What does this fold into?
Amino acid sequence: MVFLLLTTHFAMSHYNASPNSKRMRFKVRTLPLALSALLALACSDGSTEVQTFPVSVRVEFPAAYATTNAANARVVLTSTERNTSDSALTDAQGLAQFPRVLPGTYVISSSVTLTADQAFTLTGQRTGLTLNALAPARAILTAPTEPLVQALSGSRIGDLVIKEVYFTGSRTPTGGLYFSDQFIEIYNNATDTIFTDGLLIADTFGAAGQINPTTVPTPFQVQPGEVYVSSIWQIPGTGRQYPLLPGQSLIIAQDGIDHRGDPNGNPASPVNLSTADWETFNERPDGRDLDAPAVRNLTRLVFRGGFDWLLPVFGPGVVIFRAPNPSAIDSVLVPGSTATWVSRVPNALVIDAFEALQNGNSGPYKRVPAALDAGFVFASGTYTSQSARRKVATVIGTRRVLQDTNNSSNDFTVITPPTPKGFGTP
Amino acid sequence: MLRSVRSSGWRRDPFSALSGWRVGRVGPCGVTLLLTALPWRSAGAQQAGCTPFAELSGTVLQAPNGTPVTTATLRVGSRVVRTDSTGRFRVSGVPSGAAELEASAPGLARRVIALEICGPSMSGLFVRLAVRAVELDRMMVTAQETPVSAQGSSVSRIDRAAIEHVQASSLADVLQLVPGQPALNPSVAGVRQSLLRQAPTASSRDPGAGTEAERANALGTSIVIDGVPVSNNANLQTTLTILNSGPNSLPQFASSAGRGVDLRQFPADNIESVEVIRGVPSARHGDLTAGAVLVTSRAGAQRPELRVRANPLTFEASTVAGWGNGASGLSLDGNVVRSQDDPRTTRDRFTRATAQVAWSARPGARVGTTLRVRGYGVIDATLQDPDDRRTQRVSESRDRGGRADLRVLMGQPGADAWQTELTASASYAEQVSQFQELVTRDIFPVTGATRDTLAPGVYGRSEYLTQLTVDGRPLNVYARLERRADVRRGLVRHQPVFGLELRHDDNRGAGRLFDPIRPPRQNFGVGDRPNNYATIPALTQVAGYAEYRLRAPLWGRALDARAGLRLDVVDPAWRATAMHSATAVPRVSVALPLNQYATVRVGHGVTTKTATLSQRYPLPRFFDLTSFNYYPTVPSERLVLFTTRVIDPRAPTLGPVRARKSEATIDWTVRGATGTVTAFAEQTIGAFGTSRVPVGMLVPQFRATAFPSGRPPVLDPTPFRVDSFVGLYDTPRNSRTIATRGLEFTADVPEWSLLRTQLSLSGAWFQTVARDTDVEIPVEQFLSGARQPARVGVYDGGRGSEAGRVLTSVRLLHRVPQLGLAASALWQTIWRDDDRPVGRIDGVPIGILDRSGQITLLTREVALSPAYATFVRAVSPLETRWERRPALHLVNLRLTKTLPWRTQLALFANNAFADRPLYQRQRQPGFERRNEPLFFGMELVAAMPWSSSSSPRTSP
It folds into this structure.
């Protein structure tokens, strides 16, 4: 018996090591022989029969999914020695049962294909996908006391989105116009962690509406394949320095201070941004901008503003995008101007876009191409402490999945006060 | 006697047995004299049988009661006499021929009467003057051209009646009567400036701004009150430019610093007459370029008069009174105005109070003195709106001061006599301007360093109340010593004039005061500090002038020629080298009758105007550049470090502005109608402009080595980096040129007796090109963003604006003297009102400026090469397009009625048809509202005491 097992093992080893045609022939020749011998021995000696045992495999969805146990997942148990496979579907509890498993070394793999509807239920994203799990070969010599766990993973669903833009600014107690407390919030709407290193943030060029009698819409509306931006900031990092977990967000503040609590600030400001993740410190020798040391500074790639990165309080367009070589983003002269330049960002680079305009009649002033954002929102006025926040499409566990139909009209709602890193009281 | 004798055309006065003089139209109110029934004859054309010179004598009476006027002044040519206690006068040495007798008396309307004089004597003349011009046979409601004036060429004279006719509140409102000036509603809202012989250029159409060309015109217009120029040279009520503004922005409060005198401070009710020199002034007028406005106050013996004017915006009360005789006496006048800019609120308001005492005496037979003491107070304020917590804005300009003028005249007027006149004047004013505003911005680092240094600053609050006070104390001293004569040798008259002038302008005010931590809104990168005016040196000018006027027969005609030379020396003691300048300028004019219908005059002259103290001493610029910036949550751990650089923006040399004037005039008279046509060309060179220039500076940057708790960070004393920075500051330059050519014309048609209607026409065409000769460098690009360009283009100078305007004013006056009724209509048409930018045809640079401040010149070929393609600026054809506005009509109506008890009522409606069309601009989107708004009202004038003159006496 021992001899025959060793022989069989020898044959399998050869197959695994060199799966070429010659060895296949060897396998074809030796495997029936070994099995016949084993069978003969077993029949001849009932006291040495190999005992099988049941194995239960639990297949689990990724942590960001709505449920843990993956039903209808196909689990394949492949013996590395025998090169045999067995498969089973998981039940509603995510368990796949293998009642008779020989001791041995097995590779366990799992797979489940979700329809768009199933994916939406589980992730909030209406995208069909296949999840897989593959555990390294492991020896299973006795019946496991607990189900073996398979953690499914798949391609990431969802991406970063602009969660909230607080652009209107606020009034001081005397009614003064305070605009330093603006912020942009970027949210990981995906099922996986995203490293934000290198992410680019920009504001679009153009007026937000009929601000003055002579105000005209941006002349770039005739270029629907590109978005034209004034300033570009970038999150620094090596590529894996600044992770953002699913359902988490980061705040980019114009000034990363406690606007409300700082005696120099505005006691009527709705926000404390001293815990913001980033600030747009616009360093220049004659600068009047503050550098709050507790809040990291974004990298200023292109700046065409004044002392601060001031979003239009009438309504900005904001895009987040990635570019393999940000310095290659070209600049073009605004038609009819001799000195006003803007940067041209192809739509294909854009991850998400947001647009706010002056009022409901300002549609002709739209700056973000419809392919990126088919709508716009508007506040009731300037310096109203209002912000635009993306709606929650669904809640997956404790994780909110935000609505992203590439249409700010549908996806955003105007709220007051702003809710940095939050969603306010339900 | 009082009845009309119009039917005769010729008449003899019952008191005169003389014949040989002719009497023309006679007013229905019984004006006893005179006018030529015949056309004027050319001056100097001596009539057969007449002696070369004549003696005139007569009596001046007041209409309608015939009271002798004992305070009248009569002028024939250079002869000036006064009436005696019985109202009689005698003038000797008057050349035979056509002449004008001008009679004036305080409180009475002036008259000019044409005479045909034939020696040896003409006596028994009766000149009738009336309180109200409407009661006279002729009433002038617009400016009259003075054919030949001792003050210069192209002189418009505006009399009391015309001043009253436009409801003038200040001298500014009076000047609209000058040919070519548009009619305006009387207003004291905002600083008022003059604009003589110049079309308003395009950018000045923004209310309140005014281009440098217009400022140069107002600055170059000398305002002379009773022989003493009013100086604005020491007016320092200015402040730095505000956020995002151009270099020429006006301060937030009312101020005329660096511009012409604010004309609102001169009430119109106290003005007897105004002469406006538009052409070549006499050499005795200096420190001017555009022209001069000579104001004669109402002074001398006259009945007390109270004048009250009220409309929804303005309440004004004036009083004039005088005692004494023509030679000596005391007169008082006062004026109070309260006005608001908007009938709905009293927060924007203007208040003016003036008082003047004039005392004339003749201590000796050959000495006459006049002392005038004038005090005034002007407040132009925008008070805080109690509901406005947001801006809490307040702006106020208070100007109060006093002036004392002394004029001493020695010598006997008349033939072959020399006269010496001494004029001395001193004025002192307290000018306090204040501006308050609640500034809301971001939290910002700020410093109070006042010299080049590296020092910590503080973080200013995002919202603070800034309060700025500009305290100026201008002191102006003026003195003139003039000696003149009128020497006759046969038929030739020699009139030499020599004079010396001294002007001294100083300001010892406390200056600009504010808390540097709560500064006014600032321009880019420029800090602001308080400044003391005591460090600014005084401006002293001396001048000498000589003029010779020759009046002689030439080819049977009367030649009137004048040549003068004027030498102006600024800072004669060389106390401030940069100030010193010396200029000698000629003034020449010649008048020669062509025939009995026309006289031709030509004139040429150069005028100069020195820079004011505000232009010579612009406020220093402070650049506060951050070398370290650390703003943690704990206040005690914060630190900002500033590198401060102070820049003195004074130009090393700022010479006087020069204006070259040439003109030719034809005075014509046909069948009693008279008129003038003047063609002129003027060029002003070196007018003051402001240039924004770059200055490079280095800014060390520091790092912290430790961050102790509760204390500011510890810095490494060695900078880890040195940044370069290009700062900009505004400096004055003699860089602007203004060229104007044009045509002015007037025509007066005598009253058509059938309809009792007279017609006058005036108008002008002005074509003005104002340019900046400085090269243009868009240095703002250095500051436009974090990615400041390494270089910017340098573009050729010469950009500017061209504007043209053709304006005519037709005035119709219908009178019913028996009823004391006069109705007048002004029909003004602006036929052309065009403007366009000039000098922007080519966007090719002539050089490149780098961040170190170095300019590299480029040839055109190099500039057009691909390497410099980014510096070639696109010039849109739209930018150079003309704005051509269609013809615009305006009709003003006025009805005047004399009432019992020496009162007069006037009803007026300016822009009676309320026609305010819109013009759509061609160069940029938008519309312009044209024409003045409808303005109508009522004016009541009363003279005191009412009872004494309410019953007309029988005339003699």
In short: Residues 1-47 of chain A have pLDDT under 50 and may be disordered.
